[in-house]
Design goal:
Number of strands: 7
Strand order of the largest sheet: 5-4-6-7
Order of helices and strands: EEEHHHHHEHEEE
Shape: globular
Largest sheet: 4 strands, antiparallel
Distance between the termini: 72 Å
Number of helices: 6
Length: 229
């Protein structure tokens, strides 16, 4: 006789998707033997009452942990989710809330011209999109714009491009060359090139992970140039 499954809400060993009680709670990412969906484990968190989570819930927990230094907390996440739920007229998903928080962080950091942190946020947004099977290159372009603005702010004179191990031909063509820092690059960064096809995750859209390394700077004190070489 087929085993009858009885979903139990918030059970420490219940699948977050189908609610079936597992014989043993996994301690790392695993597939539910009943519904076949991925189960993520986040034991040291207080956003959700259970430690077995969906990918979306796990990403929400990780977001708070990664950007706690910028003021993120369980309360901030729940308040944003409640705000979006009221706006949508239905319960906002974890993904909708994550995206809303990302955009809120960008708006907050823009007020202080914190281009370095904005670049990090945009990069995380790009990865988030790709993991959901969407195009993240536009967000990665924004991340590189912020890097260029940060370089201009720091007085970088020129820089080189470093390829990711999975770099495509278009990116490899830029590798090893020295480029001068210009105002044009703060709006039209070299990375990712328009024809970029850098690999990301298997079966996912491409995402450029190539980066810049500053070579020469203008001293803010004496006007003298100095080099990282």
């Amino acid at each position: 006789m087929e085993r009858k499954l009885t979903p139990i809400q918030n059970s420490p060993a219940a699948c977050p998707h189908c609610g079936a009680v597992l014989d043993k709670a996994p301690t790392r990412k695993a597939k539910c033997p009943h519904c076949g969906k991925d189960i993520y484990v986040r034991s040291k968190q207080t956003l959700y009452p259970q430690s077995l989570l969906t990918e979306q819930q796990a990403d929400a927990v990780d977001l708070i942990k990664n950007f706690e230094f910028l003021g993120l907390s369980d309360k901030v996440f729940k308040d944003k989710q409640a705000q979006l739920s009221a706006k949508f007229g239905t319960q906002a998903s974890a993904d909708d809330t994550i995206w809303g928080i990302y955009n809120g962080l960008i708006s907050s950091l823009a007020r202080t011209n914190d281009f370095s942190q904005m670049s990090i946020i945009y990069s995380q947004m790009a990865v988030f999109l790709v993991r959901r099977g969407k195009d993240g290159q536009r967000s990665m372009t924004e991340a590189n714009k912020m890097t260029m603005r940060d370089y201009a702010k720091m007085g970088v004179i020129d820089f080189e491009i470093i390829n990711d191990p999975k770099a495509c031909g278009a990116c490899k063509a830029l590798s090893g060359k020295k480029f001068k820092m210009t105002q044009e690059l703060t709006e039209n960064p070299l990375l990712p090139p328009k024809d970029c096809t850098c690999e990301s995750w298997k079966g996912k859209p491409p995402l450029c992970a190539c980066s810049y390394v500053a070579k020469n700077f203008k001293s803010p004190f004496s006007g003298v140039n100095y080099s990282t070489n």
